[in-house]
Amino acid sequence: MATPRCKLWLPKKNRHCANTPSKDSQYCGNHNPSSEEQRIPCPLDPSHSVLKENLEAHIKRCPLLKQTQSLEQQPYYNKGINASMEDEGEGEGEEEDPNLDSEKPGNVTTSNMKRSAVYKMGVPELLGLISKIRSIHGSVCKDIRDSYKIPDVCGVWLQNEVERKLPFQEKHVLQQASILGNMKEIGVLDNPVKDEGHSESGEQFNFTGISKDVKRVPAVVEFGAGRGYLTQILADCYGIEKVYLVERRSYKLKADRSLRQKESLTLERLRIDIEDLDLNAVESLRGLPYLAIGKHLCGPATDLTLRCCFRRQCSQEKGVLKRDCCSLKGLAIATCCHHLCQWKHYISTILISYQMVV
Question: GO terms for molecular function, please (predicted)?
Fold first, then answer.
């Protein structure tokens, strides 16, 4: 006799939930409709919920608890170090004021508040808003040009000739290759090493070794790294000695295994929110020049990354001397999810320009 299964149908998997139903129910404990009203988000990890009556016991064994405790002991963890001044003055868990004036910089305007404001508009108001947005966009973005540059060395990826069994999506590879092309255009990346004996018309590139005479990229920090395939292409095409992948989430099918197979490369994955990362306190990065890269840094993550990279001072409490601080030599970021941006996270371009000169 087949083991009974939960009656919840999972469309993406085209089957029922594989869990065993609870007693006197057709559903498992996770999908029982009668218990939905009694479930609350886990205070440690809101991505999952728990029954109110089980909350105290769950907190003690939540998978995120051990990770959080381990992270807080790391020298590079500094809660809110890259937050804006407005963030630092806010208390955790404060409820949002529905009467908040969203026009004032520093106030928080959530996506739900924006959506609600749009839904309340009449047709004339909505058309006026669209016209205003187009006008502002046209005046601000008229000087922004597309810069689509693909280095020849990335051809092995563009033609899907990578020997390893790695996930391949053409649109992502094109974007990643263009980021590298623009970095090369401004002189941040050196030319890759070519195999000897090949003509210029049929260039072939050596991915197995980099000549010692060629200036290598000392270190690369990828923010919002995800699976790390932007760094994977960079490592395949240019010389890299150290790689730091900064990502707060856990992913499957990461590029880490492939990167660790490179004998000349050392890899360190930092599972931490960019907002809490003190880059100067990463021991293996102290005193090294590095390149900062990022693809699809959602919303405020771009501003947090800029604060993290341009933070010049070092923590005296942790005994880090200023000469031991890492130094930014180049930065390339592809942004996304602009609707998630908030005034409170915005970093002034004047500050960036000033610190770059210094």
Answer: tRNA 2'-O-methyltransferase activity; zinc ion binding
